[in-house]
Amino acid sequence: MSSTPVRRADARLAQGPPALGNLLGRVWAVDQVGVEERAASLAKRSIKRESKLWALDLAIRMIDLTTLEGKDTPGKIRALAGKARRPDPTDPSIPSVAALCVYPNRIATAKAALAGSGVKIAAVATYFPSGQAPLSVKLADVREAVALGADEIDMVIDRGAYLSGDYAKVFEEIVAVKEACGEAHLKVILETGELETYDNVRRASVLAMAAGADFIKTSTGKVQPAATLPVTLVMLEAIRDFYAQTGRAVGMKPAGGIRTAKQAIAYLTVLYETLGPDWMTPDRFRFGASTLLNDILMQIRKERTGRYSGGDYFTLD
Asked: What is the chain's mean pLDDT, rounded?
């Protein structure tokens, strides 16, 4: 790779707040044992019934209800949009989810089905899920998704470039994608299951934030392991430290493998203990999920009535 992108990356970093230019050089190693022990400890915390109901309501409002399958049809998108608007049609107190996340070809259907609801439309782009395409193709993908009506873009980084040490290329691509997003918010997917170490996750988090990410996201959901509590904690701590040094608040989205209300509450506990009440909002935290919503609805009904409802009370996605 030529030195030009490196110089442009260095220039953009230098143009930010004074602390921004040397952020990458000051990323310290992650204490693996400490991170895993703290995540496990926070996950065991119990909360009272009133707090649990509040947390479950918040978790629904934070969900990016997701379908990213080659067999997605317009009918499936319309059905999922209906669920995004009214997760439980029998209970008007249940809030809408934050967003519906789809492939770009399904944006128009989602947009029509969600008109007037306040539910955002998120679209994956940049040659999701691999990210292995020329930058021109990735940018065209993003611009088309925005033109079709996407409010949010979920991009993937080039993990091959990152793992080979070509941080400048990764940085430059995020900068270019952010520019192509226009007014749409940008979530940068690190695909942490392929980054292999907590140190890589932390450095990639800082890189993405320095390049302009509005959110950093764990996974595509297509690679295992996907989201885990320790990885999420590493990313939340990176957000905390980035905010302390730059004053810019960045959101977080764990995605993939979060299926139960109990798991969601554990993630919210880690979020609160790491970043505090200012991040307990859909504007700064999302769950990328396809099956989580049903379990939360069942748990809410159980907390209110004292008995579980079967899964057949809610639509299967």
From this structure: 90
Query: How are beta strands 251-253 and 215-217 bridged, if at all?
Result: parallel
Residue type, 146: V
DSSP, collapsed to helix, strand or coil, labels residue 11 as helix
Q: 288 forms bridges with which residues in the sheet? A: 64, 255
Residue type, 85: R
Q: Give the pLDDT of residue 312.
A: 54
What is the pLDDT at residue 69?
Answer: 95
C-alpha distances (whole Å) from 20 to each of 240, 241, 316 are: 14, 11, 46
Q: Are 73 and 42 in contact (CB under 8 A)?
A: no
Catalytically active residues, by annotation: 154, 217, 253
Instruction: Determine which helix (DSSP H) or strand (DSSP E) holds 83, and give its type and residue range.
Output: helix 74-85
The Cβ-side half-sphere exposure at 206, using a 13 Å CA radius, reads 27
Distance CA 237, CA 242 (A): 8
Architecture of the domain made up of 31-313: Alpha-Beta Barrel (3.20)
Contact 97, 63 (CB under 8 A): yes
Instruction: Kindly provide the residue ranges of all beta strands, DSSP E only, lying in 180-221, ordered along the sequence.
Output: 185-189, 215-217
Q: What is the distance between the terminal CA atoms of the chain, rounded to a whole angstrom?
A: 44
Using CA atoms, how far apart are residues 49 and 46, in angstroms rounded to an integer? 10
Separation CA 121–CA 129 (nearest Å): 18
